[in-house]
Amino acid sequence: IDYVLHQFNQNKQVLICGHNPFLTKYFKKMVGKKWAKKFKDELEPGEAWVIYRFNGKVIRINLMQMSEF
Fold this sequence. Notes:
By secondary structure, this protein is α+β, with helices and mostly antiparallel strands. It has one domain. 32% of the residues lie in helices and 22% in strands. It has two helices and two strands. The chain has a two-stranded antiparallel ribbon with strand order 1-2. Strand 1 (48-54) and strand 2 (57-64) form a beta hairpin.
C-alpha cells in the first residue's frame, strides 16, 4: 500500500490497477474517509474509479461503469 500511496501522491497522472478487496483498501487510503463513504465498498466487474486531484487534494471522483467505456 505504501508504494501505491507514494505514486498517488506524486504530482503526475497515475493509473493504478487492482482487484477487490485490495483495490478498495488503496482507494480508501488515497481519497480519505470523506470521499470513500460516498461510494460502495467494492467495484463490480467492469467498473473503475477515476480520481481527479488538484494541488494534491481530491476534487472529484467518478464511478465509471462498463457501459461507459
